[in-house]
Amino acid sequence: MSRILPYPLLSAALTLTWLVLNAPPTPGNVLLALLVGLTVPAVMGALQPRPVRVRAPATIVRLLGIVLYDMVRSNLDVARVILGLRRGERRTGFVTVPLDLREPYGLTVLAIILTATPGTLWVQYDSDTRCLLMHVLDYTEGSDWERRVKDRYERPLMEIFS
Amino acid sequence: MNEGALPAWAAWLVVLLAVSGAGFSLTGAFGLIRLKTFYERVHAPTLGATLGTALILCGSMLLLSLLEGRLVLRDALIGIFLTVTTPVTLLLLARTAAHRDRYEGNPGAPPEV
After folding, report:
1. Cβ contact, residue pair B74, A20, below 8 Å
2. Considering only alpha carbons, which residue of chain A is nearest residue B41?
């Protein structure tokens, strides 16, 4: 397993990408896709990437749903702010979130999530203090951003990358 | 592309998706002018990189799938790669701004972590 498929997730992703790019699949395309999926990860070995361990597939699906919902909602919120449709005073500023998540891949996914939801911006993460500094466009509505990041994203990520 | 191959409802749906996606991107670009500070401005273009792109790509995939008569998922790859790479640019920009503001002691500089 480990000799032929050192990075099974990467192999699967490459094969799928190749097939999606060269749809509809013909026997020749499938053969080429498998070849790419088998050879490219062998080259990756030279870079010695950290092994990824992903578990809890149900949590992945749930997290994906949460992120998609938050993305649409925050897009509408930010559009409202920009177009001046949001009434009342708006407060904007920095929020510090102490994180328990330490897994580099988990932090990477968290950075992608926070970027994919407009209205939150990942500014800095310090691995010594394990604190994340982020900028929030609109934190007037009394929503506790620290809780939101920890409950909605960090906990599922810790389950997935444990 | 032969005309008339696309039913009217599908054409309307594709137009709706493309125009609303473009609308979100335009709003994001507009935000660059409207918002005042750097950290606020960085939020604006994300509109185009997330929902704007997603809607336009959905329209594109729907159009191609109907025209070619099979499921075309190629465009989803654009969405995936864009989502994965956008944070790199934004993080670089934010870190640079934060470093500069702290170094120069500007008002509105982010607190130390």
Report:
1. yes
2. A137
